[in-house]
Amino acid sequence: MTILHDLIALYNQLPRDNVYSLVIVCILQNLSRIPVLSLEQTAELCGVSPITISRLLKKLSCSSYRIFKQQIADVVDAYPKYNRVIPIPMLDPDNATDSYLDCILHELEDLKKEIDRDALKNACAMIHGADIVHFCDMYARGHSKRQFQADLWMDGKVVQCHGAPGDCVYEGGSSVMLVTVLAASKNYGDLVRAVRGLHKAGMKCVIIASSSTPAGISENADIMIRFRGLDSAADNILIDTIYNLLCINYRASYMD
């Protein structure tokens, strides 16, 4: 996910007349200008104060305006090449629908062959034994993840959601951190450091990651759930499928 996806995800959650919604609209309409504007100039462009922009960045889990405008620049520069539903080599422009469906069917078939079924069951057991379950990732909130969170609330767990592991604080007790991370996740180094710190403090950690994700993150996992992945938007379907697998295994073992 990129800063563009984060802006759109936040925009979709807000009332249309909310000040942050209006600021996001202005930013999205001026993406190519943002990288060359200062914080004050962006605030003037959006018709708000600089502190409103800073508060928006906090909602986006972005630590500074300098980082924000660099992330915008990266999106603008790389968008034609990297922001694809499926990788370009897999796309036949004359048969785009079949290209997509063939790609998804192939990835799901691969997931069926390669998914670690014991890891899924062990993750469910670890989560069932916890009082608090932390969901930490930059992945957009899919329905399957919300369904799993609903199951956990119904089973008596406390569920806390964080935009990044760095927002999560371990206060002792029985807690599990469920992290979704992709190779293309922004601030990957910060994410690894945050997970390492929480894991060393005593929090159990289940990590869902594509096979192309660097190995550093797995060193801090009690349980690793891997999928091959394509480093494209099609990975969203695979992540949703893994959350559905967690849902169905958890309910079959502990709720039904």
Tally of distinct domains: 2
Approximate strand percentage: 5-15%
Q: From the coordinates shown, what is the CATH architecture of the largest domain? A: 3-Layer(aba) Sandwich
What is the total tally of β strands? Answer: 5
Instruction: Assign the CATH class of the largest domain.
Output: Alpha Beta
Mean pLDDT equals 87
Number of helices: 10
Describe this structure in words.
The chain is of the alpha/beta class. It has two domains: 80 residues; 142 residues, Glucose-6-phosphate isomerase like protein, domain 1 (Rossmann fold). It has a five-stranded parallel beta sheet with strand order 2-1-3-4-5, with helices on both faces. Helix 3 packs across helix 4. It is globular. The model has no long low-confidence stretch (mean pLDDT 87).
